[in-house]
Amino acid sequence: MSPADLLAGESRGKCVYIVEDDAAVAKVIRMILHDFGFETVECGTGSELFRQIGCRAPDLCIVDLGLPDMDGMDVVRQLQAKHDCGILILTGRGYVGDRILGLELGADDYVAKPFDPRELVARVRSILRRTGNLCGIDPGSKSHIAQFSGWRFNMDNHMLTAKDGQESNLSTAEAQLLKVFLARPNRILTREQLLNERDVSPYDRSIDVRISRLRRKLEVDPQNPKLIRTVYGAGYLFSTKVS
Asked: For the chain, what is the largest distance between any 2 Cα atoms, rounded to a whole number of angstroms?
């Protein structure tokens, strides 16, 4: 069996929504993903996406920012708030600020047009791997609760509970990042380890945005973090005892 066949086997049954109003671009994406075993649903508008989600929940959504009926950022915001799926922004906009804003709103990654088919598939698979949706999570597994610095984190439903009992629900990207930290407390972790990727561009801001979002949830003073510390030139350190 070839490596491509193995990759297709891992991806089989995973549903990717393609939210793209350009039919030609949507067709290219569909053909690429089908070659790697993914199932797809195409939506030309944001409203069509949210109608279709009621019929079948996606494992990941590829969202074009330039939709005819909704701003792509609004689509990302609603997906992050209401649906537990990976989010990949596909954009022809050249502004770095747009990409960073998308990550701030809850997207897991972005790809700029024109895109390389291999890069698109690699990023889709990377997101699904980080969110636990590629190989699947055993639904019969016991609940996992982590406790640290007065916080409680339910790894099954991504619920974060503070000392005073106040609850907040982490996004998929935030939860996966926290899980990596919880598995390796008091150790310096590189950007590659945190993203579960071998080769991360020095210009990739996605991990920095995720760290910033998580700090705003956990730190008393996010500008002077005590829990998630930056180790300059090396990575990040989760400085606490975890049980």
From this structure: 54
DSSP three-state, residue 83: coil
Q: Give the C-alpha separation, 88 to 102, whole Å.
A: 9
Q: Name the DSSP letter for residue 232.
A: T
Contact between 26 and 20 under an 8 Å Cβ cutoff? The reply is yes
Smallest CA-to-CA distance from 86 within 133, 122, 40, 45 is with 133
**Is the whole-model pTM more than 0.70?**
no
C-alpha separations of 67 from 11, 71, 234 in Å: 27, 6, 39
- Determine the 3-state secondary structure of 42 from DSSP: strand
Q: DSSP assignment, residue 59? A: S
Q: Which one, of 238, 220, 35, lies nearest residue 146 by Cα? A: 238
**In degrees rounded to 5, what are phi and psi of residue 4?**
-65, -40
* Alpha helix ranges (H) inside the chain: 3-11, 23-35, 46-53, 72-82, 96-104, 117-130, 172-183, 191-195, 206-218
Do the Cβ atoms of 171 and 80 come closer than 8 Å? yes
59, 15 Cβ separation under 8 angstroms: yes
Question: Per-residue pLDDT tens for 35-80?
Answer: 999 999 999 999 999 999 988 889 999 999 889 999 989 999 899 8
DSSP letters along 100-132, please? HHHHHTT--EEEESS--HHHHHHHHHHHHHHTT
